[in-house]
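for the writeup, i need someone to sanity check this before i put it in the appendix. the sequnce is what the collaborator sent (i think, or maybe the updated version? ugh). structure was predicted straight from it, no edits. if anything looks off just tell me and ill rerun, i have time this weekend
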Amino acid sequence: MIIYLYGPDSYRRQKKLKEIVTKYKQKHSAVTMERFDLEAEPDLLQLRDFIKNQSLFDSFKLAIVSIGIGGNFSNDFAEFLKSQLESGKTVLLLLADKELSKEFKFLLKKPVISQNFEELKPPQIGALIRKEAQKREIKLPSEAINSLIRANGSDLWGIMNELDKLELGGHAEDALTPPIFFVLLNRAKRGDLSALTWLLETEEPAKIFNILSSFVKTAEDAARMADYDVAVKSGKLGYEEALLDLVISG
C-alpha cells in the first residue's frame, strides 16, 4: 500500500503524517517503522532491504520515505513503487515538497491514497488561525489575525509558533507588532507579494527600492536595478511599479 503526501505546505503535510502514524500504531500491536531519505541511491537500497527482510516478529511495516529533488531513481524507482501497490503488510508513506515527475503520475490514482498540500490563501490561513486559536482558548481580534498573516505569509510554522507563545502566556497585542523590516524585505526578494504589500504600507517605496539596490551581488542584478532606476527617474515607472515588477519577475 502507498500513501502519497506532496506539496509545499510542510506544516499541514507533517500534521497529516502524524495523524496517519498514530492511526497505524493504534491499529497494529506490532509495527516496525523506519524513516528513509531518498536523496541518494544507497538509501533506496536500504528501503528495498527493509521491505524484503520480513521478521517473524513483524506483523506490519511502515516506511516513511522523504523524496528529495536530488534523488536519481526515475524509472527504476517508479517500477519499484508499482511493485508495492498491492502490498498488504507494508505501507510506503511518501513525502515530497512538490508533485513528482510524469513517471510517477500513477501515484495520483487508486489504489494509492494521495493528498496535495498547496500553500493556503490568506482567507484560508485566517480560518485556520481562528480554528487553532479556539483550540488553545485564545481570543484574537481580526487585526491580530491579519497582522500574523502579513508577518508570516503562508509560513504556517511561524504562525503556529506565535500562537504557541500566546498560549503560554503572551498577550494578543503582541501579534500586532509590525514585522521586522529586513525579514519582510528578504521575503519580497524571494517573490512574496504579501511581504511587499506590507512594506509599502509602512515604508516609502523609494527607501525600499534603494535598500534592495544596495543588496545586489551580481553584475546582472546590478544592471537590472540600474534599468529600473533609469525608468523611474525618466518618469516611465513609479517606484511602486518598479518594485512590483521586480518581485513578480523574481
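Residues 122-176 form one domain. The radius of gyration is 23 Å.
thx in advance!!
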